[in-house]
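Module 6 notes. Inverse folding takes a fixed backbone as the condition and produces residue identities as the prediction. Think of it as a translation problem where the source language is geometry and the target language is the twenty amino acids. Below is one complete input and output pair. Work through it position by position during the lab.
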């Protein structure tokens, strides 16, 4: 069973072979991969560039083999959009 299948089955309340793991992290501050990427790009660029946001989101998935991840972004991105309305 793939990690994605396991996660989706668990979300539906179906039996799974292992309990899925979800990891929330604080912007990867402890991951060298994140710090290296952050040294080359501003935080808002990471949030607003789909390929970079996906890369940041997948870093802990690849490093720790967790079953799911959340999309990398920041609440301040929403506030910026609201200022233009």
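Target side of the pair, the amino acids:
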């Amino acid at each position: 069973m793939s990690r994605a299948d396991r996660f989706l089955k668990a979300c539906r309340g179906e039996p799974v072979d292992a309990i899925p793991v979800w990891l929330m992290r604080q912007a990867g501050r402890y991951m060298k991969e994140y710090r290296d990427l952050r040294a080359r790009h501003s935080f808002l660029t990471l949030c607003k560039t789909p390929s970079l946001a996906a890369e940041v989101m997948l870093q802990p998935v690849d490093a720790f083999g967790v079953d799911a991840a959340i999309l990398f972004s920041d609440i301040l991105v929403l506030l910026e959009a609201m200022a233009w309305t």
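Reference fact for the lab report: The chain has five helices and no strands.
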